[in-house]
């Protein structure tokens, strides 16, 4: 007999009858969790009432921490410990009214054997819908079965019926009839272009710079090399500390020249003097340094696209990265030279930036940039969060919104763009946005994601519409007023269809000169992705 100390394994608790267990994944930043907690608490009460009305009851799997001021799971370790107390086969709901870090609950959800329902409130106040979509994309990548449901307050018949279905069957399916696989493409100039660009990419691979991977727990946003490399795309893994070090080497005069260029271009900066609550000139100077530093590092490594994580790594070190990101994505931007001043870097070109190092967007932006450039259209791309939306007149108009980095051409130019201080609860050191209201026009929207161990792409068409200023301001106040906003109408895709299908918090968007050009560009993009081996799906009304 040995003297080894053997571990004591605890049996999981038994499932209580007619009981649904709930968990709430939160942010890593205490300020965001505390600010969002009242909204989360209200959602949980509404949901508990709906569950009770159906003859079941909810049991919160973790207590509210009165000292911390919230009831969110705020770390991966906390999530692992909490899931030890949840019956492994119990019905489980992940309830989200705020942005959440998916890795806080991923370990527990991977091991859970009971039915899983992801629930969010239909509200723009905090990014609960964004958090739900990110967790859905992460679970899809992980191969975990789940269902989703959303409602303003869970009193509507649609949500009640969905909840009843899930409680009775353990599953809830939504209408995805708007999605179809890519059919055989015609032999035309657009398809020929897409195939040729795919061959070029594989023959001369691209390199994308990743300044630290896995931003804000976005497991779905990490594409393994084994999936990425066959496309002809390779990662240059970089450290954000190297970016900060390079920023320190940028002379004040060069940073001031970037700011002067933007001032001359007509961009508005809403500045003050209080570092804690206002956008200051010092914060902007730091952001201009980041812009210069990012281009120089990109030049050092021959990068074709770049992604800066910023959060969590830089939020306590330097002001926000958003202004630099928006500048990089625009063809017209302040000139930056090599360190010796002999060359202008990426002159006359956009350097695609994938916000929050979302590597699926890296692939999407790189492909889009090459297609749009070859077709003679503005290749400025951006990603947006699918934040929220409501009907306006005959259309359902989405609020596409991201944390401050949109190329100026999407607003109609720098003279129609502005910069505001980032919200302190997310960005303690401030920094300005590159914000504005996206101009009316035709767009192609898309999303690349991992499902069943393979890369997939959803492609669709849409229009950006102009709303009255009062309605725009109402929507900004209902979400995050400092951030850039797009009023998007998607062609042939309903609200609940997009929510049911979308496997990430982000959507990639790019303008075309007109509807016909958008259709042609989408066809070329579909051909390029298909030739690269990505499984392409068309969403809604797409003319091929």
Could you characterize what this model shows?
- Helix 2 packs parallel to helix 3 and helix 10 packs across helix 11.
- The radius of gyration is 23 Å and the shape is globular.
- It starts with 18 loop residues before the first strand and ends in a 5-residue tail after the last strand.
- By secondary structure, the chain is an alpha/beta fold.
- Helix content is 35%, strand content 20%.
- The chain has a six-stranded antiparallel beta barrel with strand order 11-12-16-15-14-17, surrounded by four helices.
- The model has no long low-confidence stretch (mean pLDDT 97).
Topology (SSEs and partners):
Layout: E1 19-23, H1 30-53, E2 57-60, H2 76-83, E3 92-96, H3 103-111, E4 116-121, H4 128-142, E5 147-151, H5 157-169, E6 179-181, H6 189-203, E7 206-211, H7 225-228, E8 233-238, H8 240-248, H9 252-264, E9 268-269, H10 281-301, E10 305-308, H11 322-328, H12 359-374, E11 381-392, E12 395-401, H13 408-411, E13 418-419, E14 441-451, E15 454-464, H14 469-477, E16 485-490, H15 495-501, E17 506-512, H16 515-531, E18 535-539
Parallel strand pairs: 1-2, 1-3, 3-4, 4-5, 7-8, 7-10, 9-13, 15-18
Antiparallel strand pairs: 6-18, 11-12, 11-17, 12-16, 14-15, 14-17, 15-16
Helix pairs in contact: 2-3, 6-16, 8-10, 9-10, 10-11, 12-16
């Amino acid at each position: 007999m040995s003297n080894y100390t053997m571990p004591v394994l605890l049996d999981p608790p038994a499932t209580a009858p007619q009981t649904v267990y709930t968990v709430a994944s939160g942010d890593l930043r205490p300020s965001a969790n505390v600010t969002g907690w009242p909204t989360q608490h209200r959602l949980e009460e509404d949901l508990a009432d709906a569950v009770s009305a159906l003859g079941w009851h909810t049991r919160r799997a973790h207590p509210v921490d009165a000292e911390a001021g919230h009831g969110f799971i705020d770390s991966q370790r906390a999530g692992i410990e909490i899931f030890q107390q949840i019956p492994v086969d119990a019905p489980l709901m992940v309830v989200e009214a705020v942005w959440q870090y998916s890795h806080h609950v991923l370990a527990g959800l991977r091991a859970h054997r009971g039915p899983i329902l992801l629930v969010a409130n239909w509200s723009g106040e905090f990014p609960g819908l964004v958090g739900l979509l990110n967790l859905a994309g992460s679970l899809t990548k992980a191969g975990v079965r789940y269902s989703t449901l959303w409602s303003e307050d869970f009193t509507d018949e649609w949500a009640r019926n969905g909840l009843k279905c899930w409680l009775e069957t353990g599953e809830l399916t939504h209408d995805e009839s708007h999605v179809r696989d890519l059919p055989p493409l015609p032999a035309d100039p657009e398809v020929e272009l897409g195939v040729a660009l795919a061959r070029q990419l594989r023959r001369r691979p691209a390199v994308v710079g990743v300044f630290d991977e896995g931003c804000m727990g976005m497991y779905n946003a990490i594409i393994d090399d084994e999936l990425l490399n066959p496309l002809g795309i390779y990662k240059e893994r970089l450290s954000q500390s190297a970016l900060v070090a390079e920023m320190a080497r940028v002379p004040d005069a060069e940073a001031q020249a970037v700011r002067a260029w933007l001032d001359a271009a007509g961009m508005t900066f809403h500045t003050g003097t209080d570092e804690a609550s206002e956008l200051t000139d010092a914060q902007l100077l730091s952001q201009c340094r980041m812009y210069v530093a990012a281009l120089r590092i990109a030049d050092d490594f021959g990068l074709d696209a770049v992604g800066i994580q910023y959060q969590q790594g830089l939020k306590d070190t330097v002001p926000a990265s958003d202004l630099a990101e928006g500048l990089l994505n625009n063809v017209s931007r302040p000139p930056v030279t090599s360190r010796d001043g002999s060359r202008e870097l990426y002159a006359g070109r956009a350097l695609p930036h994938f916000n929050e190092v979302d590597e699926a967007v890296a692939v999407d932006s790189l492909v889009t940039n090459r297609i749009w450039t070859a077709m003679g259209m503005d290749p400025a791309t951006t990603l947006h969060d699918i934040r929220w939306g409501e009907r306006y007149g005959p259309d359902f108009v989405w609020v596409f919104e991201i944390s401050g980095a949109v190329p100026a051409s999407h607003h109609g130019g720098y003279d129609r763009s502005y910069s505001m201080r980032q919200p302190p609860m997310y960005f303690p050191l401030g920094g300005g946005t590159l914000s504005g209201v996206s101009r009316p026009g035709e767009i192609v929207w898309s999303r690349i994601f991992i499902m069943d161990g393979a890369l997939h792409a959803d492609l669709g068409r849409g229009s950006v519409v102009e709303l009255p200023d009062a309605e725009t301001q109402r929507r900004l106040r209902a979400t995050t007023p400092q951030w850039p906003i797009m009023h998007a109408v998607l062609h042939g895709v309903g609200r609940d269809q997009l929510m049911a299908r979308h496997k990430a918090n982000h959507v990639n968007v790019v303008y075309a000169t007109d509807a016909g050009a958008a259709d042609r560009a989408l066809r070329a993009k579909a051909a390029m992705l298909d030739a690269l081996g990505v499984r392409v799906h068309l969403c809604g009304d797409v003319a091929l």
